[in-house]
Every structure is written in C-alpha cells, then in structure tokens.
Target: ornithine decarboxylase
Amino acid sequence: MNAVTGFGRPSAFVETVPSRVDAYIAAHDFAHPTLVVDIDAVERQFRALSAGLGRAHIHYAVKANPHPAIIERLVRLGSGFDAASRGEIELVLSQGADPAHVSFGNTIKKASDIRFAHHVGVTIFAADAEEELEKIAENAPGAQVYIRVIVDNPEADWPLSRKFGCASDKVMALLQRTRELGLVPHGLSFHVGSQTREARMWTGTLDQVAAIWHRAQDEGFDLQLLNIGGGFPAFYGEAIQAPTAYAQAVMALIADRFGDVPQIMAEPGRGMVAEAGAIAAEVVLVSKKSEADLHRWVYLDIGRFSGLAETEGEAIRYQFATAHDGQPTGPCVLAGPSCDSADVLYEKRPIQLPVGLRAGDRIVIRNCGAYTSTYSSVGFNGFPPLETIVI
Ligand SMILES: *Cc1c(COP(=O)(O)O)cnc(C)c1O
Model:
C-alpha cells in the first residue's frame, strides 16, 4: 500500500511520506476512520520551517490540529502559538506554553475570553475593528495590539474571505484609536491565503502590506511586529517548494519590502502538520448509477462532515492509496457516508481509483494532518468524530 493513485506526482513525494504512519496503519485494524500522525514528522517540519524563517518566530496556528501531543512537542521545540479562543489558550497553557509566546489572533473575541487571556498572561491581541479595540482596552488594559489587514489573495488554493481584516483605508484610524485607548499599536498582520503553493505568490500581498506598513511609520507609529500569518503549503498532488526553501524565499521577499522589522511572527498551521498525518478509511460501497455510466461512485466511511470539509469546492485534492494500486484505474465520484447530499467529495473533477476497488477495502488518505480532526462533526448521522492517534 505504498503507491499513490491518480495524478502524476513528483518522485520527491515518496521521501516525504511518513513511513511510520504507513507502517502503523498497515499493522492495525480501525473500527472507524482514524487519523494517524507521526509526531517526529511534525518536529522535522518545525525544524525545516524554522531554518528557512530565520529570525521570524513561529506561532503554530492551533486550529490546524490541536492534539495535545502535537502542542506538547511544539512547546518543547520552542514554538509560540496562535490561539483563537479561550479553549485553545487553555490547551496550549496546559501543555506548558509560556503565555508570553501565545498570541490571541482571532479578530472576533468575546469580552470574557479577552479577560481570561489577559488574566493568564497573554499580552498580544489581534483586532480589525473599533469595537474590538474597545473590548481589548476594557478587558486587557495596556495590551499590545496588531491590526489585521485584508489582502487580495487570488493565488491561494484555499483563499480566505473578507471575514477577517480591515481595508487599508481603515488601518491608520485603528492604530490611532489603539493608542487613544491606552493600548500599544504594536504591528500589522495579514494572511496570504491558505495553501499558497509557491513563495512567489506572496509578492502581491507583501506589496500591499508593505505600503500600509511604511505609511504607518511615516505617520509616527513605531510598529514593532509584522505577523505574516500562515499559508505555508502541503503536498496535495501539485508540486510545492520544500519548506526551508519556501520559507527562505518568503523572508527574502519580506526583507526587500520591509527592511529591518524588529519582530516577525509566522503562523503556519497546514504547513506544520498536514504531511505528518494520514487517515485510514474504508470503502463502504462501489456502484454505478446506470449500466451506461462511465463513472463509478465510491462511498467511503469518511466524508465532508467527518473530517474532509476542505473538499468543499473540490479545493483541496487529497491523495489516496489502496492495496490495488498499480492496477488499471477508472474515474470515480467520491462521496462520504452520511445521508446529506452535500456529502460528495469530488464530482466535478472525478478521481482515478483502481478498478478492483471493493466494499470493505482499506483506503489511505495522505497528508491529512491539518484541518481534518478539527472539522469533524460530533455524531452527525451517528458517525463518530474523527479519532486521532499520535505515534
Ligand atoms: C488559520 C490561521 C493560520 C494558519 O493558516 P495556514 O494556512 O493553515 O497556515 C494562521 N493565522 C491565522 C490568524 C489563522 O486564522
């Protein structure tokens, strides 16, 4: 079970498959779909990203995969954390994180959560609106604030909407308001869009943010922090740059545009954990809707609601491995097991799977360590949430 079906793939990928995960999955039976994560692969990725990021400090985006063993390992490696809620802050502190290395990066925070964060020693908060600044001033007086900027990100595979950030014409007013409220206007943040496959795709975003950064400096804001967010890619079938080279290239683009920024923070989520994990799943049914159909429908015991939410819009295209790999393949529509018609993973662009695939067969979904366990519903249709095993 070591070939990947479908899409031509660069041979370099073979080395990046964490073989401990393959071995573990091959040696075990699973009653339900199970994500298996190689914790040492996470460590290797942290080191590879750190090497490329140089003096930029990593704040792992906890939502990508909050398994306590992952957090604990990253604490030991010296990572900081980007937390989005009280629950994530409690989690990272319970695993030994220093609150000075935890940023509360969600721009939509409950006042009670801000108060909690302040109480436990978190000092840095994101904001993109006046009312958010007022909440921070009241519940975390004197805190450091970075303003999140909206950027156009047409090049990411999983672009972020306009839900987060403010347009450039609001940034100066918000920095000013930050100061008036007795908070520290500490810096700017942005997110280039998740799964930005190549470093050169950061160029347009960095140009936009640098213009705002320099204007703020000109207007007398002594900004200290540039938070470059996430966007670091994982392999889903299309070539990506290796993590160190990618991070180095991004840092070079930043140096060209920003000059000497005192403090740079990076918040990889997907790029830290995706390739460290694979899901062991099972084929539940293979069928054709009519005798004349060229496509088979393949139904798995995992779907949109049990971990594979990022197949929405068929944006993220996972890689599949089966015991029949090497056989001839044919086009398949891939669907999940729930009684919801939205639970179809790939239909517009069907995937190639071996013709011998049958109900009961094991199917391994590669590079699934990010945004799977966290997107899994609790008991929809009686299917349990995705289990995670860290090895
Ligand atoms: C989700 C998120 C990230 C991580 O993004 P990836 O593309 O997974 O690296 C980083 N920063 C913030 C503020 C986020 O919300």
Notes: The domain at 105-268 is CATH 3.20.20.10 (TIM Barrel). Residues 1-15 have pLDDT under 50 and may be disordered. The chain has two domains: 11-37+274-390, 105-268.
